[in-house]
Specification:
The protein folds into 2 domains: about 280 residues, Alpha-Beta Barrel (TIM Barrel); about 110 residues, Sulfite Reductase Hemoprotein, domain 1 (2-Layer Sandwich). The protein starts with 15 loop residues before the first strand and ends in an 18-residue tail after the last helix. The chain has an 8-stranded parallel barrel, surrounded by 5 helices. The chain has a 5-stranded mixed β-sheet with strand order 13-14-15-16-17, with helices on both faces. Strands 1-2 form a two-stranded antiparallel sheet. By secondary structure, the protein is α/β, with parallel strands linked by helices. About 45% of the residues are buried. About 45% of the residues lie in helices and about 15% in strands. The longest helix is centred in the C-terminal third of the chain and has 23 residues. InterPro entries: Dihydropteroate_synth-like_sf, IspG_bac, IspG_bac-typ, IspG_C, IspG_TIM, NO2/SO3_Rdtase_4Fe4S_sf. Converts 2C-methyl-D-erythritol 2,4-cyclodiphosphate (ME-2,4cPP) into 1-hydroxy-2-methyl-2-(E)-butenyl 4-diphosphate. It comes from Defluviicoccus vanus. It holds the Pfam family GcpE.
């Protein structure tokens, strides 16, 4: 039976080309991330950009906050190109972006996109002039821009103007409502100004980032209704660990379900020394579990209960996930569509056979007190039963054989989806 729940039709935005990556239009939702290295440290930044790209980040943003950072950008691009890492670099500018882009033309040329925050591009009479300078540089080098509004650095003149008008209204809105609306107005007015200066709409992406889930949903719903620019989604600070993952998933899933969003970032705060690529993996998992894109074969495993006091299925599920992760770099360049494969590793007879039949390939391990046999299902049919101490290696061999027979060999030069660093 077909599900009654379907994704809303994708909002039709104006596509923007960023190097080899298309954002918006009919293109898949793009995953991006941001380094947390000092950009002036070329070696560290190159290393992290490459790691994020390997994890599947299709755009990587770097901070360009001072002269040393701007001077380093072309060297970072050269080192990445020499290493075969062609991921587009996005320059994140605040306060003095106009000066850095004009004083360091090699930086302006090396970047694939500029991120401009209208809340701190300049103040009072300098604001429009400095904003115009950045837009003119973007046009000179044919670069797209993301006009990224952030509630922590909202344009105070826009906010004051709207607060003043609200105070005179017959039915004033709450302060939070006006702040949310001011963010949308700031983004749209800035984009319109950029177009008046000559930057075409197909070189503009907008974002309005907040940290609260419900506010983000409300802001982007309003923003999507007011324009057809491509939209970048993400909480501005999601948080650490499970809190950050849950908050990002809750917010982005609602918007993506509504057809809103052309590119996403999951802004996780890493543990000290933690892997920055985790935010890429989470973004990929959000898109894949919603059925929007495929990056890595999915492994379904039951959570365990009193019927599964043996840890056999847990160990096998982990081994299969590790095996798929290790094999994917080879599979992805050899077999077309392998990233869509579903594998089930189940722990007992209650749901094991049923879940295994729904997967492309699945195994139902014996639960407590069950016969020590593990039926294997391939494409919905029972294919064989495994027994004995080599069950794990036998099943890995079956998975490898399935990939070889099920997925056509990829034509040389055909691009695959970027790979996640771990199983989705």
């Amino acid at each position: 039976m077909a599900s009654a729940f379907r994704l809303a039709a994708r909002r039709q935005s104006i596509p923007v080309q960023i190097g080899p990556v298309t954002v918006g239009g009919d293109a898949p939702v793009v995953v991006q991330s941001m380094t947390n290295t000092d950009t002036a440290d070329v070696e560290s930044t190159v290393r992290q950009v490459a790691a994020l790209a390997r994890a599947g980040s299709e755009l990587v943003r770097i901070t360009v906050d001072r002269e040393e950072s701007a001077a380093a950008v072309p060297h970072i691009r050269e080192r990445l190109d020499a290493a075969g890492v062609d991921v587009p670099l996005v320059g994140d500018f605040h306060y003095i972006g106009h000066k850095l882009l004009t004083d360091y033309p090699a930086c302006a040329e090396a970047l694939a996109k500029y991120r401009i925050n209208p809340g701190n591009v300049g103040f009072r009479e300098k604001r429009d002039r400095q904003f115009a300078t950045m837009i003119e540089v973007a046009m000179q080098y044919d670069k797209p821009v993301r006009i990224g509004v952030n509630w922590g650095s909202l344009d105070q003149e826009v906010l004051a103007r709207m607060m003043d008008a609200n105070s005179k209204a017959a039915s004033p809105k709450s302060g939070d409502e006006i702040t949310n609306e001011a963010m949308v107005v700031s983004a749209v007015e800035s984009a319109q100004l950029a177009e008046e200066l000559g930057l075409p709409a197909n070189r503009i992406i907008l974002s309005c980032k907040v940290s609260a889930v419900q506010s983000l949903i409300a802001v982007y719903g309003d923003l999507a209704a007011r324009c057809n620019y491509a939209l970048h989604l993400g909480l501005t600070e999601a948080g650490m660990g499970s809190k950050g993952i849950v908050a990002s998933t809750a917010a982005l899933a609602v918007l993506l379900q509504q057809g809103i969003g052309d590119t996403i970032r999951v802004s996780l705060t890493p543990e000290p020394g933690g892997d920055r690529a985790q935010e890429v993996i989470v973004a990929q998992q959000i898109l894949q579990t919603m059925g929007l894109r495929s990056f890595m074969p999915l492994v379904t495993a039951c959570p365990g209960c009193g019927r599964t006091t043996s840890t056999l299925f847990q160990k096998l599920a982990g081994e299969i996930q590790d095996y798929i992760r290790d094999r994917m770099p080879v599979w992805a360049t050899t077999f077309e569509g392998v990233e869509t494969m579903n594998v089930a590793v189940m722990g007992c007879i209650v749901n094991g056979p049923g879940e295994s039949k729904h997967a492309d390939i699945g195994i139902s391990l014996p639960g407590t007190g069950e016969d020590p046999a593990a039926p294997v299902f391939i494409d919905g049919r029972k294919a064989m039963t495994l027994r004995g101490p080599n069950l794990a290696s036998d099943f890995r061999g079956i998975v490898e054989d399935y990939v070889e027979k099920r997925y056509p060999r990829r034509d040389p030069g055909t691009a695959a989806e970027p790979l996640a660093a771990t199983s989705a």
